[in-house]
Design goal:
3-stranded antiparallel β-sheet, alpha+beta, Cytochrome p450, 398 residues, 5-stranded mixed β-sheet
């Protein structure tokens, strides 16, 4: 049998299993086919089990449930109320100029220095955009990106011995309090005085308290900052390694550029696994999954299902057209009622950033990024992605 082409950079050499649905020895169910994943995620017999959902459910006096963990009518209502922040029209009219200005600023600093670390540059871009959407624009001191990064880099370690878990919890609490006092609380105060068109203003109008708004800000930080940083980095890695692909990207119109980025995301989904618990028994691929079961939807396998992605599903092919009315990124943004609402924002942001970055004179990579893993978002982390370029003189007069 001929070896199938594999253009992935973040898969740790793992070839996706083609078993559609199966249960492992620990009792967890795994879904790997597109058809069964879509049926499962679009059904009404599951609840969120990822992003430490089980821990959140056990917290005492947790107040309003974060939108990430809401289900049923309450979830649909909150999604409806926040949808206006993420429509293609809103992204184009409210945030395009902001994203262009941020990209010019962060890439300008890199170009002037002649060297920089891509994941840090991408994080500065992602934080700037998400902060505007959420409303985290009134921090007491600079460094929002560092504080967000410290919280998610530390994670929420609930494994190991009691001492390790206690120490991890204390560190997480300290980072959370620092984020609240330096970033969230000032933003709340500013929006109590003057509401704006952002998420925090919306939450205040809904009667959310400070601690509840903090939880939502962490949710949006994970979705809009941390994952977008990885998306930008992995796209740059592919485009810098393939001169023809880079030239095609820079010469293309916006729709074609978006499709190319979505194909990279299909191949390299930032969030690798979606977790759910069943609330009723269901049958998938002739397997009876009982109520209360933990189910993992393997997005790498789903995105590489030949039934939807066609031949050579592990190859990067910008002209690929997934079948069964699946979008170009297939399920990289999830599916069903918990599908990521910020998908268009992420694609637009990455496009604006990368078109400017790739046009920097003399741009080149200095070695491969280090590929790690983040258990909280079940996705890869790309670090030490060093770039160099021909240093650009400032246009300012001396």
């Amino acid at each position: 049998m001929a070896t199938q082409p594999d253009d992935r950079r973040t898969a740790f050499g793992r070839i996706p299993s083609r078993v559609p649905v199966e249960q492992d020895e620990a009792g967890t169910w795994h879904i790997r086919s597109f058809a069964e994943a879509r049926k499962f995620l679009r059904g009404n017999a599951t609840r969120q089990a990822g992003f430490k959902a089980d821990l959140v459910q056990r917290l005492p006096d947790k107040g309003k449930t974060p939108i990430l963990f809401l289900e049923g009518a309450l979830h649909h209502e909150q999604r409806r109320l926040t949808a206006s922040f993420f429509t293609p029209r809103a992204v184009d009219t409210r945030y395009r100029a902001l994203m262009a200005g941020l990209a010019d600023a962060v890439i300008g600093r890199f170009a002037a220095a002649g060297r920089g670390e891509l994941s840090a540059i991408g994080m500065a871009m992602a934080v700037g955009v998400a902060a505007e959407v959420v409303g985290l624009t009134d921090s007491r001191v600079p460094g929002l990106d560092r504080r967000i990064n410290a919280f998610f880099a530390g994670g929420l370690d609930d494994k190991g011995g009691r001492l390790r878990r206690t120490w991890s919890a204390l560190l997480a609490q300290a980072r959370l309090l620092r984020f609240y006092w330096l970033d969230v609380r000032p933003a709340i105060a500013a929006r109590r005085r003057t509401p704006r068109e952002d998420v925090i203003s919306h939450l205040l109008a809904q009667g959310y308290k400070g601690a509840e708004i903090l939880t939502e800000c962490i949710t949006y930080a994970a979705a809009g900052m941390v994952t977008t940083r990885e998306f930008i980095t992995v796209c740059a890695w592919h485009l810098l390694d393939d001169a023809a692909l880079r030239a095609r990207f820079l010469a293309a119109e916006e729709p074609e550029r978006h499709a190319l980025l979505e194909e990279i995301l299909r191949l390299e989904p930032v969030v690798g696994t979606l977790f759910r618990r069943t609330t009723a028994a269901m049958t998938l691929d002739d397997c009876l999954i009982p109520a209360g079961a933990l189910v993992e939807v393997d997005l790498r396998a789903v995105n590489a299902d030949p039934a939807v992605s066609g031949e050579a599903p592990l190859a990067l092919r910008p002209d690929r057209c997934p079948m069964h009315r699946a979008g170009a990124p297939v399920m990289s943004f999830g599916d069903g009622h918990h599908r990521c609402p910020g998908s268009f924002l992420a694609i637009q942001e990455a496009d604006i950033f990368l078109t400017r970055l790739l046009a920097v004179p003399g741009l080149r990579r200095e070695g491969d990024p280090k590929v790690g893993w983040n258990d909280l978002v079940t996705g890869y982390e790309l670090r030490e992605a060093w770039l160099a370029c021909t240093p650009q003189r400032s246009s300012r007069a001396p």
